[in-house]
């Protein structure tokens, strides 16, 4: 709601009988009321919302983006580097510790098991504690795990470290999406989500050449140490600087997930469709996280350093796609006035394009054609990512952290299982085309789930939910 313009304090004094005394009395009451409102606001976020909406136009336009660029973006880039560093260093780690490809794939995917399991508890934790404490301490914990990982000596110890990393990283996404919710007005949240997703994928873009070059120069152990120390610095900065945004709501009234609210959410077809859509989208995207380095070196016969640079190309395309998709989705919404077209149809088109392009890449003889199709497939997933988080945020007003956690849980179930399935199929003699047919079929199915999830636009389930 836009705040109404304040009434003038100084009114012309009446010259009638007793007029001056009456006006002075009204003036005193007005000043007393304003002073009390500033000292004891009924809603602690009201004053901030007023400044954001009208009292400080420059701050309203720039403050959310400063928070995003200075705090949210660096931590999420660092998380992407930490998450991808092991997958990119895996060929060297596997050779050093005598791990086969199935074991390496299992260790890489193990992060997503604990990440998935902890999504719902993390969403609940973010809803109650807010992104400030949750994300700051989580980043500090996973950075410490990154520093300790080089001391692992074999398959089991690496598995334990990766599971611990996934446990602590689980809070990042719920906290970051909630931070966007708290700082950005509803009309601009798609752009905020697009930038947030873009920085994750920009981190994945950087991780390719940065990790492979660092591993070549200083070894994989020192590379992980370096990433962990940078994470500790960023988490300390977050805890010292970040503050809650103006759309968070009263601190003394944290949302409580009652039985009625829980039952309403759990019985919603839209909630299940959102989860199913993200499961299908992450089934395709997980190939790029885990299997792509092996695919580029075994099927496309690239060297280790060349693989790092080519690994970055699809992620760069995804980064650009996500940023552009956020603005495109908002533009469609402004022109059509239809959240269904701007979110659901937009996301479904991206899922279908991604599935078809990824499967086609597996049958290309030319490296150039295959890499181009890999880039198109991952870029198309940018449309899905922007759509899914806008749909998740629109499902409920007060429990966005819980819905985000639910969505992330199902996506990471796919991300933790699909790469292992692909590696086992390859181990039993299947071709890359046959192995990739499974996630691509799920991608086409996901387009239908996206349409179901967005059939009611962004209307909340209940007015008070």
UniProtKB/TrEMBL annotation:
Main location: membrane
Keywords, ordered alphabetically: Membrane, Transmembrane, Transmembrane helix
Pfam families on file: MFS_1 (PF07690)
Positions of region (Disordered): 1-24
Record localization: Membrane
Top-level taxon: Bacteria
CC terms in the record's Gene Ontology section: membrane
Classification via InterPro entries: MFS, MFS_dom, MFS_Na/Anion_cotransporter, MFS_trans_sf
Entry membrane topology: Multi-pass membrane protein
Annotated Major facilitator superfamily (MFS) profile domain residues: 68-458
Transmembrane segments: 64-81, 101-120, 140-161, 194-218, 224-242, 262-288, 308-333, 345-363, 369-392, 399-422, 434-454
One GO MF term: transmembrane transporter activity
PANTHER family linked to this entry: FI19708P1-RELATED, SOLUTE CARRIER FAMILY 17
Protein name: MFS transporter
């Amino acid at each position: 709601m836009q705040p109404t313009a304040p009434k003038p304090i100084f009114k012309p004094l009446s010259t009638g009988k007793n007029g001056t005394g009456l006006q002075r009395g009204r003036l005193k009451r007005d000043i007393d009321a304003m002073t009390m409102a500033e000292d004891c606001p009924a809603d602690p976020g009201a004053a901030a919302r007023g400044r954001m909406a009208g009292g400080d136009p420059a701050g309203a336009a720039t403050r959310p983006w400063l928070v995003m660029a200075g705090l949210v973006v660096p931590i999420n880039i660092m998380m992407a580097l930490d998450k991808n560093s092991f997958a990119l260093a895996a060929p060297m780690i596997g050779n050093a510790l005598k791990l086969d490809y199935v074991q390496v794939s299992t260790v890489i995917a193990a992060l997503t098991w604990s990440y998935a399991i902890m999504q719902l508890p993390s969403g609940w934790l973010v809803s109650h504690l807010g992104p400030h404490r949750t994300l700051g301490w989580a980043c500090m914990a996973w950075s410490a795990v990154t520093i300790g990982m080089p001391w692992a000596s074999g398959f089991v110890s690496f598995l334990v470290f990766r599971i611990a990393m996934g446990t602590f990283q689980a809070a990042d996404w719920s906290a970051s999406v909630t931070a966007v919710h708290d700082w950005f007005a509803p009309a601009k949240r798609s752009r905020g989500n697009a930038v947030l997703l873009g920085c994750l994928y920009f981190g994945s873009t950087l991780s390719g050449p940065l990790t492979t070059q660092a591993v070549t120069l200083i070894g994989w152990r020192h590379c992980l140490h370096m990433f962990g120390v940078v994470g500790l610095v960023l988490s300390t900065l977050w805890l010292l600087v970040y503050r809650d945004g103006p759309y968070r709501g009263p601190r003394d009234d944290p949302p409580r997930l009652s039985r009625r609210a829980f039952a309403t959410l759990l019985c919603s077809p839209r909630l299940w469709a959102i989860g199913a859509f993200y499961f299908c989208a992450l089934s395709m995207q997980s190939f790029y996280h885990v299997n792509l380095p092996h695919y580029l070196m075994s099927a496309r016969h690239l060297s280790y350093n060349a693989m790092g640079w080519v690994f970055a190309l699809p992620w760069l395309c995804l980064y650009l796609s996500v940023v552009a998709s956020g603005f495109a989705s908002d533009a469609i919404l402004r022109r059509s006035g239809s959240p269904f077209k701007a979110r659901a149809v937009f996301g479904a088109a991206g899922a279908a394009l991604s599935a078809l392009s990824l499967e086609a890449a597996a049958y290309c003889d030319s490296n150039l054609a295959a890499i181009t199709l890999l880039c198109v497939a991952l870029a198309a997933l940018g449309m899905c990512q922007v759509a899914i988080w806008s749909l998740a945020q629109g499902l409920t007003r007060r429990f966005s952290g819980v819905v985000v956690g639910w969505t992330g849980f199902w996506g990471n179930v796919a991300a933790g299982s699909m790469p292992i399935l692909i590696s086992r199929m390859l181990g039993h003699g299947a071709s890359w085309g046959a192995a990739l047919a499974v996630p691509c079929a799920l991608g086409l199915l996901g387009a239908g789930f996206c349409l179901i999830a967005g059939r009611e636009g962004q209307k909340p389930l209940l007015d008070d939910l």
